[in-house]
Amino acid sequence: MDGTRTMTEIRNTFRTPLRILVPKLLQSRDDWKAKSDTRKAELRSAKVTIRDLTASRELWRQRAETHADDNRQLREQLQQAERQRDAALAANEAAEKK
After folding, report:
1. What is the pLDDT of residues 86-95, one digit of tens each?
2. Of the N and C termini of the chain, which has fewer Cβ atoms inside 10 Å?
């Protein structure tokens, strides 16, 4: 049905009377549109959810990276403090031996 057929050709093509066929076609169209609208709404909702989750994930990733950097710095400070303590203890022991 490309829209170029006449009403007579359409009537001759279908065995079902138009008074029965047209309401069914209209109902089919309305059902299709309702289904399409439902899917559009679901898609829109999914896009919002994805956007929110992506933003949340990025925020948590940044927090995790910040905490990992802080943890690395604190470990380095601890190792430096332990080296200074060991050096001080060694110097103290050397001073006591003299």
Report:
1. 999 998 888 8
2. C
Domain boundaries, the chain: 23-97
Query: DSSP state, 10?
Result: H
This model's pTM is above 0.70: no
How many residues are listed for the chain in this entry?
98
CA separation for the pair 51, 62 (Å, rounded)? 17
Q: In angstroms, rounded to a whole number, what is the distance separating the alpha carbons of residues 94 and 50? A: 65
Q: Which residue has the tokens 């898609």?
A: 43
Residue 91 tokens read as: 């110097």
Contacts of 5 (CB under 8 A, 6+ apart): 13
Alpha carbons 6 and 8: distance in angstroms, whole number: 5
77's tokens: 């400070």
Sole residue written with tokens 């303590």: 85
Tokens of 92: 């103290």
Closest CA to 1 of 21, 31, 27, 30: 21
